[in-house]
Amino acid sequence: LAKLLLLGYFCLRAYRIRLHAVTTFGMVIHEFDPWFNYRATEYLAEHGYKKFFKWYDYMSWYPIGRPIGTTIYPGMQFAAVWIWEAMKMLPETKIKMPKHILNQIPKWLQLYFPNRGRMLSFSPMSLNE
């Protein structure tokens, strides 16, 4: 009876440990999966799909590594690279903002526009710049 109670207690504790992040922070992805997907997308963009499917990643599943080509669903990585490549082909665009539109935008929001809100501009950029 004592063994059964201890087993039940430890199973309950293990279950509560797994749910700790959900009960504390809510249903938000805050683990390492987004970082892996970002690295995998970068690798695909830099090396191409042939090397991507043969890539053996030693930074995940430490210490043994992980064969990426056979263990992931690469749809998100391919879609991200496709969108990025399509965005790079778009020309840089600048649009003069009319005064009546600028007057509707709060002053604090204009700080987030390039050229301080006098002109909207679009061009491909890197998050690391």
Automatic annotation (TrEMBL):
Keywords assigned: Glycosyltransferase, Magnesium, Manganese, Membrane, Metal-binding, Transferase, Transmembrane, Transmembrane helix
Subcellular localization(s) per the UniProt record: Endomembrane system
Cofactor(s) needed for function: Mg(2+); Mn(2+)
An example molecular function term from Gene Ontology annotations: metal ion binding
Catalytic activity: a di-trans,poly-cis-dolichyl diphosphooligosaccharide + L-asparaginyl-[protein] = N(4)-(oligosaccharide-(1->4)-N-acetyl-beta-D-glucosaminyl-(1->4)-N-acetyl-beta-D-glucosaminyl)-L-asparaginyl-[protein] + a di-trans,poly-cis-dolichyl diphosphate + H(+)
Domain Oligosaccharyl transferase STT3 N-terminal, first and last residues per copy: 18-88
InterPro entries: Oligo_trans_STT3, STT3_N
Membrane topology summary: Multi-pass membrane protein
Chief place of localization: membrane
Pathway noted in the entry: Protein modification; protein glycosylation
The protein's Enzyme Commission number: 2.4.99.18
GO cellular-component term (any): endomembrane system
Family: Belongs to the STT3 family.
Name the UniProt record assigns to this protein: dolichyl-diphosphooligosaccharide--protein glycotransferase
Lineage of the organism: Eukaryota, Sar, Alveolata, Ciliophora, Intramacronucleata
